[in-house]
From TrEMBL:
It comes from the Bacteria. This is Aminotransferase. Keywords: Aminotransferase, Pyridoxal phosphate, Transferase. Its EC number is 2.6.1.-. Coiled coil: none annotated. Residues 1-190 form the Aminotransferase class I/classII large domain. Its cofactor is pyridoxal 5'-phosphate. CDD domains: AAT_like. InterPro entries: Aminotransferase_I/II_large, AspAT/PAT-like, NHTrfase_class1_PyrdxlP-BS, PyrdxlP-dep_Trfase, PyrdxlP-dep_Trfase_major, PyrdxlP-dep_Trfase_small. It is an enzyme of class 2 (transferase). Belongs to the class-I pyridoxal-phosphate-dependent aminotransferase family. One of its GO terms (molecular function) is transaminase activity.
Length: 199
């Protein structure tokens, strides 16, 4: 199963390679999952699709037809329009995401105790926050990335997500799908809140 929901949101020299395109043998074994929520900014509309061997897709369709209702009609028509006629808008959005991505990476890597590799796709960065483990502020102890995420929410009024569920327990996830103005405010609040933590 190949999740390619971010196929159009890649940066620099990165390219999305569809797993099913690697060979006819792989194509016969691959189910490709995609949708409109990320590249077409239609999160919440819940429109996705799967491509794969006909007998598997038929089984999926039969199962789905007996367990859930279909997406609403306006969402289906909007998704068809997005897929057929929105590449220019997607490219404009991708370029704006790239600008925000570069800003956040530069800002994070300029902070004394944070480090972050540069992502090549999607709209998240994942800085390593393990330096702050064992620190505290105002009686709040930071023992892991969840503690740090909760601290940021309480102290800086910004929402970040721990990456422990994604096998990166020393990292938090910051989305750059918001406006540049809000990102700048959020990054300043993040830095200020971090500066208050003492070992």
């Amino acid at each position: 199963m190949s999740d390619e929901i971010y196929e159009l949101l890649v940066y620099e020299e990165a390219k999305n390679i569809c797993v099913a395109s690697l060979s006819p043998a792989i194509k016969e074994k691959t189910i490709t999952i995609n949708g409109v929520s990320k590249a077409y900014a239609m999160t919440g509309w819940r429109i996705g699709y799967a491509l794969g061997p006909a007998h598997i897709i038929k089984g999926m369709t039969d199962y789905q037809g007996n367990t859930t209702t279909s997406p609403n009609t306006p969402a289906q028509y909007a998704s068809m329009e997005a897929l057929a006629n929105s590449r220019e808008s997607v490219e404009m959005m991708r370029a704006e995401f790239d600008r925000r991505r570069k800003y956040i990476i530069e800002k994070i890597n300029a902070m004394e105790h944070l480090s972050c590799s540069t992502p090549k796709g999607a709209f998240y960065v994942m800085p390593n926050v393990s330096h702050y483990y064992g620190s505290q502020y105002n009686g709040i102890m930071i023992n892991n990335s969840l503690d740090l995420a909760n601290y940021q929410l309480e102290e800086a009024n910004i929402a970040v997500v721990t990456e422990a569920a994604f096998e990166a327990p020393d990292h938090i996830r910051i989305s750059y799908s918001n406006s540049m103005e809000n990102i700048e405010k959020g990054m300043n609040r993040l830095e200020e809140a971090l500066s208050k933590l003492n070992p």
